[in-house]
């Protein structure tokens, strides 16, 4: 019902998106050659949801989200992934348990042959 829907921001209704309100002024960034195994501890210790990937020359390469990383790791371990990224959780229906996968991640394991973060799905080359 219209009572449950919050009113749209006036600029959005005019086709203008208020980006400064939606964007982080100081996003977390990582270099493209960062070992992929260091990503999950970065997300869990800092409580962030996404990082910007920057090339060694300082160019934007893409974004890796915590949910995207979990989905990538699930695919490496043969787990199914959720269609909704916000609902991405470790599926324990087959293969290693979610607890085992999380333990491996925290120990820096679990990413298979993924050497650097540009090999993770979702980092687009621009």
Automatic annotation (TrEMBL):
Gene3D superfamilies per UniProt: 3.90.1280.20
Top-level taxon of origin: Eukaryota
Domain CBS: start-end pairs: 23-81
Annotated keywords: CBS domain
InterPro entries: CBS_dom, CBS_dom_sf
Record region (Disordered): 79-102
Name by which UniProt lists this protein: CBS domain-containing protein
Species lineage: Eukaryota, Sar, Alveolata, Dinophyceae, Gonyaulacales
């Amino acid at each position: 019902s219209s009572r449950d829907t919050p009113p749209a921001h006036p600029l959005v209704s005019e086709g203008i998106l208020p980006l400064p309100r939606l964007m982080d002024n100081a996003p977390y960034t990582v270099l493209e050659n960062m070992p992929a195994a260091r990503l999950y501890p970065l997300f869990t210790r800092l409580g962030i949801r996404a990082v910007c990937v920057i090339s060694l020359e300082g160019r934007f390469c893409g974004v890796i989200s915590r949910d995207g990383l979990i989905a990538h790791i699930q695919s490496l371990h043969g787990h199914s992934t959720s269609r909704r990224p916000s609902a991405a959780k470790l599926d324990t229906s087959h293969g290693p348990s979610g607890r085992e996968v999380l333990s491996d991640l925290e120990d820096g394991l679990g990413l298979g042959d993924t050497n650097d973060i540009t090999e993770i799905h979702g980092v687009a080359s621009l």
